[in-house]
Amino acid sequence: MGAAYYRESFFVALNGLYKDWLGNPQVWDLSTDPCEDQWLGIKCDDSQTRVTQILLMNQGLAGTLSTSLGNLTSLTDMDITSNPMLGGPLPAEIRNLIHLERFFVQFCNFSGTIPSEIGNMVSLKYLGLSQNNFTGPLPATVGLLKNLNWLDVSNNNLSGPLPVSSTSGIGSGLDNLTNAQHWHLQNNEFSGPIPPSLFVQGMQLLHLMLRNNKFTGSIPPTIENLVHLQILCLDDNALSGTVPSAISSLSNLSTLEVNNNNLNGQLPDLSSNMYLQMLIAGHNPFDTAEIPSWIINMRNIYLLSLDAANLTGSIPAEIFGFSSFLSNVSLGSNYLNGTLNLTEANPSSLLFVNLSDNDIIALEKGNYTQKLLMNGNPYCEMDSSACNPTQVGTLEAPAMGTECTNDCDPEYAINKKDSSSCQCAYPVVSTCNFPASRYPTLSNFVSEMEHIIAAGLNGSQYLEGILIQDTQVVVDVSSANEIRISVFPPSNMTAWPSRNVTVISYAIKNRDIDFDPIGAVLCEYTGTYWKLQVVTRLSRGAIVGLVIGAVVLAIVIFVLVLYAMRIKKRALKAEKLNKPFAAWIGTGQGLSVHVPHLKGARWFSLGEIRSCTNNFSQSNEIGEGGYGKVYKGFLSSGERVAIKRAHAHLLQGTAEFKTEIELLSRVHHINLVGLLGFCFEEREQILVYEYMPNGTLTDCLSGRTGLRMDWSRRIEILLGSARGIAYLHTEANPPIIHGDIKSCNILLDEKLVAKVADFGLSELLLDGRLSVETAQVKGTLGYLDPDYYMTNQLTSKSDVYSFGVVLFEVITGRLPIEGGKCVARQVAKLHGATGIDGVVQEWVDPHLDEYPRKGLGWLLEIALNCMKDDPQERLSMAEVVKELEVLSGPPSEMAKSLSINMYKNRSERDDQALIQEKYGSSSFEYSGSYIGISTPLEPK
Predict the structure, then answer these.
(1) Where along the sequence do coiled-coil regions lie (predicted)?
(2) Could you tell me the pTM of the whole model?
(3) 236-266, pLDDT tens digit by residue?
(4) Which residues line the annotated binding site for ATP?
(5) Which of 169, 259, 361, 932 is the most buried (most CB within 10 A)?
């Protein structure tokens, strides 16, 4: 078959995926070639005729996995991890993917059984199906995957016994996977005994993770066949009998977890396991005995946990100092007695000791100053300082990273790798679990991660010129056996391009990193990569709500049809009134079931909208934002309008759509964009506004509109905007908080009158409180009020803060964030150090040729008072209007009023004394106020 056949085949397949993913990813253009145009997440072979990779982690995919996937028979890699709105069953057509080597669909919403056709994917090396809703048994056909190295089906609802070839009926089972190194079957509902035939000679298993299932019976002695095993996790089951002595022969074992079972007898002597670092065996009904003497021979132990293990007798002092790596010792809820002697403990390495709920009567702490839990012992009756019952017995880990003093916006992460950079940016985040490692070797791990990332990215077609050697990997300790890895972009960038996010996460997620002396490390891509617009994603509950809403809508329509047959005129009227609103009934959590309350806005049919936009032609496009595209159009009356059409996949925009219709239809002010109508038909969400021919304030400041933005024009635009916001805060009934004030939401009409737009994130204030409590911070990075970000409390002062950012934009002509730094804060720091001179020299917009120097200083003070850290100290929007009104007045009036109102306690100060204090005179004349004309009057 020729190249044309393969190109047509994969194009049809990708088109099927795109359709079933509800139009995601947005950047896929079905009119172009996926290989030549390098579609996001798509990689082709050298001939550009076959798709070999689909890498779309955390891309907001929704819907199901199309059966057309089976047509991509040349696929070698597929990773669609972290798309929680993507679900449904895995299609049986995966049987055609015989060349697929890596298949990851983790952290999604897939359900149903794992199809037995998975056994046809004979090239699979990595299979990751964790964090979904799969049910039923693990198919025995998995045993046909002879090349499989990594099997991860953890965190699902799989049940039944583990399949083995002797009982499966097809002669295949997990025991056939002799080359596999990782079995991650934890956190399911597997039941029955662990089959002795599961473990055969020659197996290469390194990780056997069976924790948190419903296994019964004994631990099979055939486990001794797993001679390479490093991690054995059997905890949180219902296993009984003794721990087999065969485990002592596993010389490479670094982690043993058998806690929370019904094991009895005694632990076998494990001192020959030279690499054992974590022993967790508590909460078992072992036979009563003293602390095993062989423990002090385990020189590499890092964590020892034998809580509720029926231990009795005294505690040998050397148990706290026999290993230089010992970090955590937990022996709570036993019958240990006598004196607790910590004199041999090393306080620099031993971070946590738990002896709660024992029979200890005395304590010798020596130099030990770290965390000690002693509650529930007789000793507490004599000294309660170590016996706080409210303390939680969590394991401890040392802190890492350099303290940074950078003044980053709270939305950014801080690169703490070294104090000289402390970069403000958006990293790609992964979580790595150290089941059997010790923290002093983390520097080696960071070096290894840097190597892996570079190897995964160098030469990639997705790099877009990024210099990988300039990336930074930052490690943060999350818990005693988990760290978070943040991969920061190069220092000259704020964020990674979306293409690079997928490649970086693919390079580090679910890879087994195994090197001396760390041992095994498990990494998963768990971070959510920040977008420029922070919005609430649609929850699973909301998805259910949408389904219910669709059913309700169908019933309502059926009833309306019946009703129309009886009373046709009334039915037609009811349909006209209610058709636009029916889909709001039951659209998800937290949304009102009532229809919008409208004043003056009309409903447009989709046919009318298509007609006036020439069927949404590209020539009619005038803008695009995170919500959707904006088109110009002409109504049948000849009136020119702006039409905002939501992206088809933005179902989570329903609440914002409803909010904007209600708010804009009930507020009327010269400085607010007027809503003419809307369309809500055939899943379209469209708003019809008055047309604003001069674009946004952002466009004007950038020079894209060609308008000359002189001083007076800037002040008039700011004043108009402030009046519109102040109207929302004080004159609208009830008051409204806009929630997303920014320069691109300030539009200019044909007379350059500023009008505030986009009420999608606005909230009503009822009796001084928000009508709906915000569950998640929403807004735009760079403009977000830090107090709102920290407290989730949206107030009118949040709008004031955002408007202060806009003031700095007008002063500097720059966007709020440059190079990961907040422009406003940099200007404020320079102003505090040098006064207005430094600001004029370094930050004033070079396109602003002439301006009153004192007026600039006044505008800067207004901005600073809008952005106070404490919301109570910020100006109100009404006060901002008054200040700007003075600035917009005649120069002489401005000079007379200069700075009087800029003091928070101005009502307590004498105005003339204030002028005297700041300018050395109780009155002065305004002369030569424009830069480049003559010397302005300066404070003394």
Answers:
(1) none
(2) 0.54
(3) 999 999 999 999 999 888 889 999 999 999 9
(4) 644
(5) 259
